Amino acid sequence: MADGKTSAHDSPDPVVGKDAMPGVASRALDARAMKAFAHPLRMAMYSYLTDRGTATATSMAQHLNESTGQTSYHLRQLEKHGFVEEDTGRGSGRERWWKPVGFAVPTYELSQDESNRPAIQALFQTTLNQRAQALGRWLSVENHADPEWVRASIDSSSTRTMTARQARALSEELMSVIERHEKALDHAEPAPDARSGQTADGEETRRVRLYLSVFPLVIAD
């Protein structure tokens, strides 16, 4: 999950965090909204939207093997709690297009109430699974992917000994870098196709996912 900052054209994955930090979504979930989100189909629909940028109830129903009645209902619930909004720049008026809205999950505060913990755990588990699946899909095709995209991608980890203050400084700096690039993208001309289009000068654009976690290791005895 991520304490994601909403951009003008897009939305990152939800982020989990305790305090405000550069690039973190300004809207933090309350317990009611979090429990409304922690529904398997709603989380799957939100994931579908973040993967594609924008979609309709019909396309989500087809992808998720659900009826359009189900996806339409759950989209209304997601809209009610501020997780999605209508993409007014898309569509012909016959069917509404939707896009995701970023949000932060203040897990430490919410977990102080034991009744919130099942929903928090559901969010954690779903997010971990989605991260593993998304990265796994890329790694499975990387060996025959466009070399330009292979060179642009990374999969890296680093483990160091540091204080909480040092870890916080690292997190803030990394989030500042992400925020700077997001702002630049906000002011860039959007591609005709949110998933795989072209810039004005013909350069290919694709949906790109970034995961960032900084945390102290819990080492078993």
From TrEMBL:
It holds the Pfam family HTH_20. InterPro entries: ArsR-like_HTH, HTH_ArsR_DNA-bd_dom, WH-like_DNA-bd_sf, WH_DNA-bd_sf. Residues 1-20, 184-203 are annotated as: Disordered. This is ArsR family transcriptional regulator. It comes from the Bacteria. Residues 32-129 form the HTH arsR-type domain. CDD domains: HTH_ARSR. Transmembrane segments: none annotated. Residues 1-12 have a biased composition (Basic and acidic residues). GO terms for molecular function: DNA-binding transcription factor activity.
